[in-house]
Automatic annotation (TrEMBL):
It comes from Papilio machaon (Old World swallowtail butterfly). Gene3D superfamilies: Haemolymph juvenile hormone binding protein. Belongs to the TO family. InterPro entries: Haemolymph_juvenile_hormone-bd (IPR010562), To_sf (IPR038606). This is Protein takeout. PANTHER family: PROTEIN TAKEOUT-LIKE PROTEIN, RE70318P. GO terms for biological process: circadian rhythm. The keyword Hydrolase does not apply. The keyword Signal applies. Pfam families: JHBP (PF06585). Keywords: Biological rhythms, Signal.
Length: 333
């Protein structure tokens, strides 16, 4: 005879109680027996010998198959429980899932149960999002988020015309490494303004690709076409997210990320352009030295297209993160 112990986690999803992460542990007592039908297609004698050997080692065999049986039972029982709960109105279920240990209302965000109070919610949301970020390198296909390492930018075009510098440059097939190293340092939720402001820190962004450049520097013609590499360090970014409502049929409205803006400051920058001046190394090295000595201007020229690239990268993440939440859990009524 076997007994089963079932453990499961309860959660509220869209105002309904669901069972998830079911776990079953079996405990069997008494003699175990097993019989394999048609174990051998040759003779009845061989089948009897096989079953005899199985009977002699039934305990060892049971121990080996037990984890698979427990997993299968857990899946079946979890499915049955959720089908049953689906037909029960949420207002008929008394649950403490939407309260924390101090009795305050909570909101499920990822694997976190976050307090609803704005300051505590902001801190919890920061922690929840930071859990997701390391996974962004390989992407989150089930949420429609592609890999971000490297982040690909098809084209960057920069027109620089200030004083003695008049240069037009195009950068293509740009790969950017480093976005998955970002960390959210602060989150501010403003329910009345329907706004979330997040501050990020990115230790380093490394770029490489192909460039084409032409123009004049101090009346000296400048031309180049070849590979380039660049590095940004100590990047502090501010995300401003405008939230709205997304209607869900026969359910409460979900949150929607209506707009996402990115602004960042760079602590350091460097660049190396190959094949400048038709491969003249002396002139090329001089040009690269000049650019790196004036990295603040270089960073400023790259800032707007890089902000656009970061916005395009972060928008799907924000869409998923907020799209799983109920609008009424965040907005003030």
């Amino acid at each position: 005879m076997c007994t089963a112990a079932l453990e499961a986690v309860g959660a509220k999803v869209h105002k309904r109680i669901v069972v998830r992460d079911a776990n079953v542990k079996l405990k069997c007592a008494g003699q175990l027996s097993a019989d394999l039908m048609e174990a051998h297609s040759t003779t009845h004698e061989m089948e009897m010998i096989t079953n005899h050997l199985i009977g002699m080692h039934s305990s060892e065999i049971a121990k080996e198959v037990q984890p698979a049986v427990e997993t299968a039972l857990a899946m079946v029982l979890e499915d049955i429980a959720n089908k049953f709960l689906k037909h029960i109105p949420s207002n008929m279920i008394q649950s403490d899932l939407d309260k924390n240990s101090e009795g305050h209302e909570t909101i499920p965000i990822g694997g976190f149960m976050c307090p609803r109070e704005e300051e505590a919610l902001s801190e919890c949301l920061k922690d929840a999002l930071n859990v997701y970020i390391p996974e962004l390198a390989t992407g989150l296909p089930k949420y429609g988020i592609p890999p971000c390492e490297p982040l690909m930018i098809p084209t960057l075009t920069i027109q620089q015309a200030a004083g003695p510098i008049s240069i037009s440059s195009t950068y293509t097939n740009v790969s950017v490494k480093g976005p998955a190293s970002m960390r959210i340092t602060k989150v501010e939720v403003n329910s009345s303004k329907h706004e979330v402001i997040a501050k990020l820190y990115i230790p380093e962004l490394r770029m490489k690709g192909h460039y084409n450049l032409s123009g004049k520097l101090l009346l000296l013609p400048v031309e180049g076409d070849g590979k380039f590499s660049a590095k940004y360090g100590d990047i502090y970014a501010v995300l401003t997210i405008a939230l709205g409502r997304l209607h869900r049929e026969n359910d409460v409205d979900a949150l929607a990320c209506e707009k996402l803006d990115v602004k960042f400051d760079v602590g350091s920058a460097s660049i190396n352009l190959e094949n400048l001046f038709d491969g003249d190394n002396e002139l090329g090295n001089t040009m690269n030295t000049f650019l790196n000595e004036n990295w603040q201007k270089l960073a400023k020229e790259f800032q707007e297209p890089m902000e656009e690239a970061l916005r395009d990268f972060l928008k799907p993440l924000a869409d998923h993160a907020f799209g799983t939440l109920n609008a009424d859990d965040i907005f003030l009524r």
